[in-house]
Amino acid sequence: MIMDKDLVSIQESRVLMENAASAQKELALFSQEKLDAIVEAMVGSVSKQVESLAKLSFEETGYGRWQDKVQKNLFVTQQVLTHLRSLKCVGVISKDEEQRTLDIGIPFGVLVGLSPVTSPVSTTIYKALIAIKSGNSIVFSPHPHATKCIKAALDCMIEAAEKSGLPNGSLSYMDTVTKEGTKELLNHPDTALILLSGVPGMAELGRRSGKPVIYSGTGNGPAFIERSADVRQAVQDIVSSKVFDNGISPSAEHSIIVDECIEPQIRSLMQEQGAYFMTEEESCALAELLFSETGKHRLGMVGVSAKQLAKRANFSVPDSVRLLVAERKYVTKDDPYSKELLAPVLAYYVEDDWMHACEKCIELLLHVRNAHTLTIHSNDEEVISLFALRKPVGRLLVNTPASFGGIGLTTNLTPSMSLANRTYGLGMTADNISPSNLTYIRKVGYGVRQVDNFLFKQESKPQCEESPIDSVQKVIQEALRAIQNS
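The chain above was modelled as a monomer; its predicted structure follows.
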């Protein structure tokens, strides 16, 4: 029997949303302690499979390195869990006895989650944890190229969560995934909020739905090495960050801007760290390999190692090479290296000083209009401050590898696998997304003053002397009234 997949997917979406809405009525009454116990059970179950899920993700998508995906999964099940334990998201979350006010956390309701093909498992685990932590139901639309690993991670968590008391339907996913079915999820009347990560093709549909959207999309993050920086450490940070998972981490660097006076030192150190500076001919060959004529990433070219990319582009590199570097002068819409490079590839710019570097960073950030992360390596606090004040970006990282600093591993930013980018882009926030973004705060205020003792009195206005013009007008009016009465 031939079935219409779109119709099946649409119907499945409706059923999942109805079940999630029904479960939400019960879930919204759960205490924070009960929700925390469910989250612990979810992590306890999925943490046993971090390696197998990482391998499944790599086998299904071909993106990145499974060893690095293990680290992402461990980050979510360890450091993120530690952070979540310290949060209170629902119920009375703060109380001011002196001012007699309360803050009460209220779940949004039913969420829709879309995860990226680049980090499908770790992002899905993260979204599931923060949704349940904050008392929300969530329905996932798995990425079409990562359905097996996403479903495997969710199956593991759903079983453990429901054994711990999570209402059936609170955590679920589409089994038949189509664009039309996903549109039904986004537009469903019960959808309260959309969590959209790394699926740019769905961003416009999310916006058109009229629902609140938390969008974690294009990175395109520049990194600037300023002359006062610890240059050796800066180079080590950037290279280690960009080669991690073959360059597909959400906040990874995509271009490097260097201060001209330290450029020779940076070039030499990068080569020591395994960077290969391509010729212009090699750069053009690689660009044609990475991007199609329409400017989109070619399938099978994302998250591929530097050595494999060079081989496919028909040029050879030494076995020690981990990173390919394309030297550029200008940022233009026609230059592929001005875009997000989801591979161990960096664009390389040289500028006279920090002011010109500042302008280059702005050009790169505005090129895609929703870049979310910028990194600066510097020990000049004035320059760092000016970068922080002037850049159209969601987060500024200082003296840290961007792949790790952006998610909160090497910084004290909120540990998160969803880095939003509201600045010059889509969505409702530029935060590292946490459960706090998935609730609203109900304010409670007790009366502390009696209104009778707190009435405002209107100040009396001083009487003004009558002007000659007013006197004439008064005489004319009196004369008119006398004529009318006669």
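The two ends are 100 Å apart (CA to CA).
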